[in-house]
Design a protein that fits this description.
Blueprint lengths: L14 H17 L4 E17 L2 E19 L2 E7 L4 H16 L32 H16 L5 E20 L4 E19 L2 E11 L8 H14 L9 E7 L1 H14 L2 H5 L20 E3 L22 E5 L2 E2 L6 H6 L14 E3 L6 H8 L2 E8 L9 E12 L2 E14 H6 L1 E4 L4 E2 L3 E3 L2 E9 L2
Parallel strand pairs: 7-12, 11-17
Antiparallel strand pairs: 1-2, 1-4, 2-3, 4-5, 5-6, 7-18, 8-9, 8-11, 9-10, 12-13, 13-14, 14-18, 15-18, 16-17
Helix pairs in contact: 1-2, 3-4
Length: about 450
Amino acid sequence: MPHSMPNSQQFSFTPERLRQIARDILDHARASGATACETDVSEGFGQSVTVRRGEVETIEYNRDKGVGVTVYLGQQRGHASTSDFSPAALRATVEAALSIARFTAADPAAGLAEPELLAREVPDLDLYHPWALAVEEAIELAQRCEAAAFAVSPKITNSEGASVATHQAHFVAANSLGFIGGYPSSRHHVSCSVIAAEGEEMQRDDWYEVRRDAGSLPPAEGVGETAGRRALARLGSRQIPTCEVPVLFEAPLAAGLLGNFVHAASGGSLYRKASFLVDALGKPLFAPQVRISERPHLPGALGSAPFDDDGVATHDREVVRDGVLEGYFLGTYSARKLGMKSTGNAGGSHNLIIQPGEHDLEGLIRLMGRGLLVTEVLGHGVNYVTGDYSRGAAGFWVEGGEIRHPVHEITIAGNLRDMFRGIVAVGRDVVVRGSKHTGSVLLERMTVAGA
């Protein structure tokens, strides 16, 4: 894909203007009696194009801006927001937040982050790569992407569309402890979803790629071809009898498993006692060979950030080492509720990397021998209090270390505790589409409910 040219579309506000708005808000809050204040000023714009069966289906442009203000009167908190940057509107937003704070009960955990945890340096993490993509070029890319999917086989008979989208944003966050920081970022993606048919049977599948820098996106044709091959491979799906077998989560779904872990290990779930990981720090949680690291400062990565939503500096750390849980995901508020210290995760995890093993997907299939390769899950059957996991699924039956036939209309069930402990291997077929970096994950066993 072409590297970006200097962008013809620009932000309406300079970074200095955003900083000035932030400073004005802090000054007004202080003058109006707030004991502390934090604010976030942002602006973003983007476009997306969707093509279906070669024809343009939608062209969307978006441009938005916003200011969020949180004020404190002691430990009473109030929050208000606006999309109007005029001085009168900004003052009114501060006043609205103050009046909410006056009627809110004091909360011992409320307040700004500890000053010593705030980011003082804001390194450039290479997160901004504008893409000067004319709408005609975007349409042509989407058409080439979809055409490549149709070219895979005459059995690819229909399409749910191919999309090309680009987005740019910048923000400034500041608080009354002297913290001020912000940066621009970009995200670009190409996606395709098609339908394969044979006789009465129809199967759909999709593929997408997302990057900060459009120059590192794979060719649009490759995305379409992958979507086409995936849909085609699902033809001839059938059910299987209920069994207990090893289950291999394909890399995009393994990121979902990692997401289940993050949710259960996050402050909000923990202080509400809505997680099976309450009091799990320092205890074995995963199989002994599993290592999960957080690397918030990887240049150009989708989950990189120099500081979290509270302005707390992010840092490299080991979350799981030798299978043992060494860290939770805490923001300032949840850390206080738990009597702990913020880990710089207000707003989520940053580039969570599960250490890959030696096998690619084929190698993991051979290692599994007999079992189920899962390529799609449906529904939201995760109970974080107990760890019980049950979801509709589709994928492929494996016998003798080889894929035998596609499988659909089944349910996979287990408990996250057993699933994490039962990780046999993690693949090196890493797919990155967000803040989780993982290859495919092979689990010792799950219950597969079929026909």
